[in-house]
Q: What sequence folds into this?
């Protein structure tokens, strides 16, 4: 089977972006209806287990969950759940479009981690992209003057930072673990962790709230599967560009459900952040092609 199918990969990633925006829309509605955030996070993870477990059971693939890297999965889950908390907190505190935009700063933090923690070389193109990206954040937040709550902005930026760290963890796990195994163990450890909070935050729900909670889990799980499938058919630096289409859906949901449209500061700042991410993705693509070419020359 040909795994180099870039058009299919881009299409799958566009669908994944729409599903993620939909998941956060349901999460925002759930918290506004009175559901506590730890419970939203629990159901986001727990719903994944019967969905993936049932699929593997029916197909006879439960053995695919066997792993020798339990500790790595646990660390990824701890970091992932912290990032998820920040992400859902940002969604609950901010308009949906703004919380989505802050999440786009993850590539900027990835560059900083590459330079300051991994001590890899970062050239002027990526440093310039980082500067422009964070300038976009300042335009949106307008410290001391904007409509953006500082706590919400902090949650959005923290979420992006954790997402950047998690990307390095997933890259490491990907050396030995197939995607469905990574998703399953994240859901298992994540739901077990959040179950500890249920005695303190769990409560009775009506049918509408149960619908919202299950929708968060279902859309989140399907989104992960589409994201994983996209990476089977296209290069990372190419497909992640489609993540920015989530802003279209977030803006649409904000307009139709909450009657909110982003103010001028967001329309000015978001393109700076998106452009910075595109530059970083372009540079990563160039480096990947150069490494591949060097590998062919070495093989010769």
A:
């Amino acid at each position: 089977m040909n795994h180099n199918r870039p058009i299919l990969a881009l299409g799958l990633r566009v669908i994944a972006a729409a599903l993620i925006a939909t998941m956060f829309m349901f999460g925002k509605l759930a918290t506004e209806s009175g559901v506590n955030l730890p419970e939203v996070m629990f159901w986001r993870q727990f719903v994944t287990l019967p969905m993936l477990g049932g699929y593997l059971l029916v197909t006879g693939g439960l053995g695919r969950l066997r792993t020798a890297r339990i500790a790595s999965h646990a660390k990824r889950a701890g970091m992932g759940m912290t990032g998820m908390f920040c992400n859902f907190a940002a969604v609950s505190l901010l308009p949906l479009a703004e919380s989505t935009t802050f999440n786009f700063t993850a590539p900027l933090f990835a560059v900083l981690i590459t330079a300051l923690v991994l001590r890899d070389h970062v050239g002027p193109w990526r440093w310039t992209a980082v500067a422009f990206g964070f300038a976009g954040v300042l335009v949106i937040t307008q410290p001391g003057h904007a409509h953006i709550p500082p706590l919400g902005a902090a949650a959005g930026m923290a979420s992006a930072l954790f997402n950047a760290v998690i990307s390095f963890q997933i890259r490491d796990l990907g050396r030995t673990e197939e995607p469905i195994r990574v998703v399953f163990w994240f859901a298992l450890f994540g739901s077990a962790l959040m179950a500890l909070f249920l005695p303190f935050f769990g409560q009775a729900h009506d049918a509408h709230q149960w619908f919202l909670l299950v929708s968060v889990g279902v859309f989140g799980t399907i989104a992960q599967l589409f994201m994983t499938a996209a990476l089977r058919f296209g290069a990372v630096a190419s497909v992640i560009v489609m993540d920015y289409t989530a802003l279209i859906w977030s803006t649409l949901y904000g307009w139709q459900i909450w009657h909110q449209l982003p103010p001028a500061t967001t329309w000015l700042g978001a393109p700076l952040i998106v452009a910075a991410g595109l530059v970083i993705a372009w540079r990563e693509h160039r480096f990947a092609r150069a490494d591949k070419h060097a590998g062919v020359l070495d093989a010769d």
Remarks:
- The chain is about 80% helix and 0% strand.
- Confidence is low (pLDDT under 50) at residues 296-300.
- The first helix runs from residue 6 to 32.
- The chain has one domain: 6-299.
